[in-house]
Amino acid sequence: MQDRRESAFLRRTRWIGSLRFLFFLIVLALSRKHFAEAPETFAHALARHHIELTKPALIEALRNPDKEVRGLAAWQLLEMKEDDSLPMILQAVRDERDSQTKINLASAAASMGSQEARAVLEGICHDASEPGWNRTEATRHLFDLHDRACLPDLWQMMGSGVEWSTRVSAMNLVQWLPDLDAAQSAQLLSFTLEALNDSEPSLRLFAADSLARMQDTAAIPNLRAAIEAEKLDAVKSAMEDSLRRLLAVKPSV
Questions:
Q1: What is the CB neighbour count within 10 angstroms for residue 240?
Q2: How far is CA 226 from the centre of its chain?
Q3: 113/115 Cα distance (integer angstroms)
Q4: How far apart are CA 92 and CA 150, in angstroms?
Q5: Residue 7 pLDDT level (bands cut at 50, 70, 90)
Q6: Full-model pTM
């Protein structure tokens, strides 16, 4: 859990440039080409910024001019189980003006048990004026705490007309929930099939891979039709791989 939190945080704070880069990342993942680089820890990231790993230094770092450092400091205090630093982290949440950093600070405080911090995260995920990435990131942290308050917002973010990267993030979050009921699973499948025919190639590619991971063989005809209609060779090849995975699924007895 620690490595997953750390790597997700660091990826989030360093996200720059065009979202088209996600297309490359998806193709890379689907072709099974992975880099064996260990995720950077909060402590190592703070060392890059020359921040000492002492409680006083970390509390001071909550007011650092660098927004990455502010978020890292809060998570390192959490990792060090410095629960009595919660009031200082909450004050940093209240003072923070950068939405991404506010999410990072609030998620650390929420993991320490703060209901105020949970309310901040819920407010961000409910706020339609916030960028989709911020909304889904706030939701992800709440999901880590087994809080499903933002699940209705994710359904809205999956619909056509929403920015494709937001749709990908929303669908991906819901796909990994372990407790979807039959109606929710059917709803997720419907949104995924809709995405399979979208004009954005990254979304089509993601949808095809999702169908394979969902192992719903009823979607095989839809995937075959999407492959037939696909014009981009890279996407078609990835879709064909997804189809092979789906065809390999044994029917339930």
A1: 15
A2: 26
A3: 6
A4: 23
A5: low
A6: 0.82
Sorting pLDDT into bands at 50, 70 and 90, what band is 15? very low
Whether residue 125 contacts residue 150, with contact meaning beta carbons closer than 8 Å, is answered with: yes
Question: What does the block give as tokens for 22?
Answer: 């996600």
Q: Which letter does DSSP use for residue 217 in this model?
A: G
Checking if the pLDDT of 14 tops 70, the result is no
Structural tokens at position 226: 């999407």
Amino acid in the structure at residue 8: A
CA atoms within 13 A on the CB side of 121: 30
Which CATH fold topology does 1-157 show? Leucine-rich Repeat Variant (1.25.10)
Sign of CA dihedral 108, 111, 112, 113: positive
Kindly report the CATH class assigned to 174-253: mainly alpha
Encoded tokens for 59: 């509390």
* Share of the chain residues as helix, strand and coil, in percent rounded to the nearest 5: 70, 0, 30
Residue where the block lists tokens 């979304």: 203
A 10 A CB-CB count for 125 gives 24
Extents of the domains making up the chain:
1-157, 174-253
